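Researcher: I'd like a structural prediction for the single chain below. Treat it as a standalone chain; there are no partners to consider.
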Amino acid sequence: MANVLAVAWGVKEMVEPSQADAVREYIKSMEGSKVQLDTGETATLLKGDVKEKNDKATLIYRYQLM
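Model: Treating it as a single chain, here is the predicted structure.
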């Protein structure tokens, strides 16, 4: 199997504005963590944050599959 550079992926998910601070705290605490998926792949959480605008909150995070 060839050794290739793993691509980083970005995800956006809507969250309840009332939960934005708790979600932000959690995702920040998970940065750098590795998660073993059911497929056998490992996902590394690169970074994440919650952006708030116009009474809406969006979780944005980047991960890399290995």
